[in-house]
UniProtKB/TrEMBL annotation:
Domain N-acetyltransferase: 9-170
Keywords from the UniProt entry: Transferase
Enzyme Commission designation: 2.-.-.-
Family annotation (Pfam families): Acetyltransf_3
InterPro entries recorded: Acyl_CoA_acyltransferase (IPR016181), GNAT_dom (IPR000182)
Enzyme class: transferase
A GO term for molecular function: transferase activity
Superkingdom of origin organism: Bacteria
Protein name per its UniProtKB record: GNAT family protein
Amino acid sequence: MITLKGENIYLRALEPEDLEFIHIIENDESIWEISNTITPYSKYLIKQYLEQAHKDIFEVKQLRLVISSYKEESLGMIDLFDFDFKNGRAGVGILVKEIGDRGKGYGYEALKLLIDYSFTHLGLHQLYCNISEDNETSIKLFTNQGFKKIGLKKDWIHTNGSYKNEYLFQLINN
């Protein structure tokens, strides 16, 4: 049995009822830098996305899950993207929406569940993530789960009129 349940949270598939939640996240300019977004998303486009969300990761090369509390509160989202079955790898992205919910272990638990699922059920060999050099919270989260910093992409992110460096982190399933 596939379990995406942790002690305090569980990961679940997207539902049509997530429209408002996703719309708020996708249009939050404070996180556009980490999501590489430059324009707002309409509810219409997000609704179309949700209608296709049931498709298999092998077809769409992405899996987006909601991080949910056992009180049925949507806390954030975690993604596998650039899913590459041939080479056994995928990128990981994670966001805990509310600042007050950060630092409580939800991201740590969600990432652990996704890592276990990726290696055990999807048969992936490695996961990677891209983190701007000033995002100390994400660096700590991923390194605490065993990700290693393997590279620096200089002047990789253009934000607020200047460029920032971005680290590449990798976790290999041995």
